[in-house]
Structure formats: C-alpha cells, structure tokens
Amino acid sequence: MSSSPLRVIVAKPGLDGHDRGAKVVARALRDAGVEVIYTGLHQTPEQIVEAALAEDADAVGLSVLSGAHLTLFRKVIDLLGERDAADVVVFGGGIIPDADIPVLKEMGVAEVFTPGASPSAITRWVREHLAADDSGAQGNDRGAEATADA
C-alpha cells in the first residue's frame, strides 16, 4: 500500500438533516489513520464530486436517510465518471431497503451499510476493500478508503 494516507469524503447529500451516523463513521475512520473530509449537511451531488476531486479523494462515503438513495448515488457516480474520476470508490449507508441494495451495487456502489452496521465493521471493510484496490483490483493508484453512515 502507498505511504500516502487514504483520503475519504464523507458526505450528506440532499435535505437529510441527521448526521450523527456520518460523524461516528468519520471519526472511526480518522482514528484508523484515514484522512477524512466531512462535507457537512445538505450537499448536492455536484458539491460532493467537486470536493472529491479537490481533495484527491480515494473514496466517497454517502449517508442517505431521506429515501432518495437511488437518485443521489446514481448522480454522484455519473458525475465522477463525467469528470474522469470513475476510479473513486463510492460506498454508503443509511435507511436503504434490502431490495434496493442490489440496484445500488449494479450501478457501481461498492458497498451498502444499513442500520446496525458497526463503525469497526465499516472501517474494516474500507481497509480490506481499498487494500485490494491498491493491488490493482480496482480503484485509484493511491489505495482508496471510504466511509459510510449506518
């Protein structure tokens, strides 16, 4: 793995005002040595992608509790692709129906965490998944890490 620390954007897209879970996950990732950039509440997909590019992020973790997860994840993934940043790993969590998880994964979401996922499990997934990315499986050449909100 590269000596550069992993950089992860943690974002709350849309009008959802509940950010406790996102902050808990961001803190867990930070404590595990990941550089975490928390964008705050009420971010548009465009703002999230701009932050990912400006911060040279390895991954973007979205927390969505509003029910707009299909639209918001799709828009972030599409915008990353349009900006030649499709190698940025996208993952997330929130109140997401089980039936929507395969749909999200099909569109390119690497992992979906639902309520009850522990911060340590999310951190472990990020480390394991991004270490695989660093070895050439997928993702950018820095090794990526991301965060999600349970």
UniProtKB/TrEMBL annotation:
Cofactor section: adenosylcob(III)alamin
Keywords: Cobalamin, Cobalt, Isomerase, Metal-binding
Record's keyword annotation contains Isomerase: yes
SUPFAM superfamilies the record matches: Cobalamin (vitamin B12)-binding domain
Protein name listed in UniProt: Cobalamin B12-binding domain-containing protein
Gene3D superfamilies: Cobalamin-binding domain (3.40.50.280)
Coiled-coil zones: none
GO molecular function, one term: metal ion binding
Ranges for domain B12-binding: 5-133
Highest taxon of the lineage: Bacteria
Keyword match Metal-binding: yes
